C-alpha cells in the first residue's frame, strides 16, 4: 500500500490483507538497513487473524521515498504521523533493533495512542561499535559482513533455516545492499546518538514486551536490566528470551517470535 | 557484489544447511522419506498454507532433506536460496516458466547441452516461448538478439561440445543493460571451480546428476537465485514476480520479499503445479557427493591435465581442445575466470576420422562408453557415431565436432591407468585406419 506522507511516497506492507475498519492495529517497525520484508511471516499471521497490520518501509528504505531520517526522535514522529494519516487512533507497536527504539520513543510521545509495546532485540543505550559505524560509511560490504556475523547465532551461520531452501545470511546481505548508499550509516548513527531512552521509557504506560534471544551479540539480553528498570511506569513488563537464536530472531526463529508476539498481544486465533 | 561466505567452501560442503537434529542428534543428514507433515492444529495448518509460518506441508513443494541440499548449494554458490528439482532439465524449465509465459523470448548460447537445446529450440516454441541462439563468444550477437520481449539470457559456463568459456561478467553486463537476468548452467564446473553468481550472473542451475553427485547414481537438478536482480526495476518485464498472483493468496512476490521473489514464485507455483520435485533419497545421495566436492574436483582437474598433456604429444592425435591449453581460443579468459581449473571434461580429435573414433571407443576397457559426464569413473563418447550421428560431416564441423572427435569425462582413477587405457584405444584406432 502506497500513501503520501510529508510530501513523500510511503510504502506500508499490510500482511497480504487490506486494512479494515474496526480492527485492532499492529505496527511492525524494521531495523537499520532493512525494510518491511523482515516481518513477512509474523505480519501475515496477524493480518489473517483479525488485525490490521502496518509494516512500513521507513523513509529512504525499501519502497519508501525521501531521505532516511536522522534521529530516532524524527522517526518516532514519522510513525505517529503515519498512524494519524491512516486515521488510526490506537495501535500496538512492534519494533526490532533500531525499530524498537523508534517504537519506544513513539510510545513515550503518545502514551494514549499506544496500547502495547513490543521491543524485539532491543537494548538501551544502543551504542554502535566504532569499527562498524565507520564501516557503514566507508566500507559497506565490510559492515554487512560484521552485521551478519554478529546478528546470527553460530548455528544460523551454517544454515538450517526454518524457511526451506533459504540462505538467511545471504538474504540479509542482499537486503542491506538493496538500500540506498548512506541509509545504513544514517540508521546506525541514529541508534548511536539516541540518548533519551531512559527518560522515554519512564513515560511508557502500556504493557511492554522485551523479546530477546540468548545468542544475540548485538543486543544481548543481559544488558536489558537498566531499560527494564526505566520502564517502571509501564502497566506490565514481560520478558521473553528465545533459545538458540541471535539478533536476527525473526528470521532465525520466526515461529517463536510470532508466538511471543501473539501471546503478548493477548489475542486468540480467529480467521 | 558477491555474497560473503560464512566458512570456506570445503566446510560449507560438509556443514551448510544442516545441524544435528534435536530429537535423535543424527550427525548425517536424515532422509525424510515422507510425503507429508502432520499439522499441530488447524490454526498451524492454515498458517503454513498462508505462508504465515515456516515449515513443510507436502514433499512436492519442500522436504527437510531437500532443504539441506538447497541451502548447501546456495551457500556454496553464493545465492540467497535454491530449489531442488527432479533433474537439471527440470531446473532449467522451472527457471524459464517462473520468468515468462507465452510470448517470452530467450537469448541463449548456441553451445548447449543437447537436452537444453531441444527444450529451447523445439519444445518451448510449442508453448509460445522462442529462443534466439548466438555464438557464445560473440557479444555483439548477444546484444543484437535481445528484443523487447526478451526475459532471459542463458549460457553454459563451459559450452558443449566446444568447451567455450562463457564470459560471465561480459554477458551479465549485456543482460543487465537490457534489464533481464543471466542464467548460467554451471554443471561442468560446480562451485568448486567457479561461482557464476560472484561474477555477475543472476541465476545458476546445475545438473546435480553430474559432478555434484559425482557417483552417477542419482538424477537431480538445482536452481540457485543470487538475489541481486531487482525485478521491480525491470520496467514491468516480470509480472509473474511483481504483480498479484491469484493462484497464491493474491501474493505479489516482490512485495512479499524483494530479494527472494523468484524463489517464492518458483516454489509456490513451479514446484506446486509442474511437480518436478526431487526425491529425498536422491537429495541425500547428492549431498553425500557434495561432501567431497572440493577434493574430487581437484582430482578431476589433475587427471584431466595429465591426460591432456599425454594426448597433446601423441602422434595419432590431431588436436586437443581444452581451455587450459594455449591453443584454445578462450585460454586467456579461462585463466581469468577459472583459476582453479577448467574441469574434467575435454575433447580431442583422432587422425583417421569416424573409423578411428569408433575403433578407439570400442577398444577402451577402463573408460566407459556412454552418454554422460561428471561421474567418478571416466567416461567417453564418440559424438559422430552416437549423439550427433544424424549430422553430415559439414554440419558436424559447424557444431565444432570432427568425425574423429572424442569427448572424455575424466574420472578419479589413477592417471597412469587412464593413460594406458587411452593408449590401448589409440593403438586400435591406428590399426583400424592403417
Automatic annotation (TrEMBL), chain B:
The keyword Transferase applies. GO terms for biological process: cysteine biosynthetic process from serine; L-homocysteine biosynthetic process; transsulfuration. The keyword Nucleus does not apply. GO terms for cellular component: cytoplasm. Keywords: Pyridoxal phosphate, Transferase. The modification N6-(pyridoxal phosphate)lysine is found at residue 210. One of its GO terms (molecular function) is pyridoxal phosphate binding. InterPro entries: Cys/Met-Metab_PyrdxlP-dep_enz, Cys_met_metab_PP, OAc-hSer/O-AcSer_sulfhydrylase, PyrdxlP-dep_Trfase, PyrdxlP-dep_Trfase_major, PyrdxlP-dep_Trfase_small. Its cofactor is pyridoxal 5'-phosphate. NCBIfam families: OAH_OAS_sulfhy, PRK08134.1. Belongs to the trans-sulfuration enzymes family. This is O-acetylhomoserine aminocarboxypropyltransferase. It comes from Zoogloea ramigera. The lineage of its organism: Bacteria, Pseudomonadati, Pseudomonadota, Betaproteobacteria, Rhodocyclales.
